[in-house]
Amino acid sequence: MIVCRTESQAKQALREVETILGKLSLTLHPEKTRVVDPKKECFDFLGFSFRKWESRKSGKLLPYAWPGRKAMKRARMRLGELTAARWLRIPLPEIVRWLNEVIVGWRNYFSFGNGTRQFQALDDYVHMRLLRFFRRKMGSRAKGVRRRFEDWLKNSGIEPFFQKGIFGQAR
Fold first, then answer.
1. What pLDDT score was predicted for residue 164?
2. Distance separating alpha carbons of residues 120 and 123, to the nearest angstrom
3. How far apart are CA 139 and CA 66, in angstroms?
4. Which residues contact 150 (CB under 8 A, 6 or more apart)?
5. First to last CA, the chain
6. Does residue 165 have a pLDDT over 70?
7. Is the pLDDT at 168 greater than 80, yes or no?
């Protein structure tokens, strides 16, 4: 990613990068390399989506970054794998430990930026997947399974993606 003030500067920088890479017998990927005006459209880089918007508070044009669609999809896939039915024989604390490794790593990587909505959506997804897993493990016909799940969840030690006060405002 190269950031420039004008489109002409960006095109000049792109030509210079192509020249340097050519000397190293490397090339830029034509489908992944483009000049973008972040005021008009969003672009993805290293799992983040970037865009410039006016700040609600100051009215100034500011850069915003949040986890991109592909990153969100990969996170949901990984969380889904860890709460799949094939792991029903594994004790719940072990499942929580595996989930926490993914959650903490993902949260730390994407903590830069403005990902409050994405973090909250992933918290909802983890809650839904764990409830489904818990029901399968305990037997979906068991009395009070939802209440038992909520009690278990409070004491499970599962890390949240969204941490109030660190990433922004809670819902």
1. 74
2. 5
3. 38
4. none
5. 33
6. no
7. no
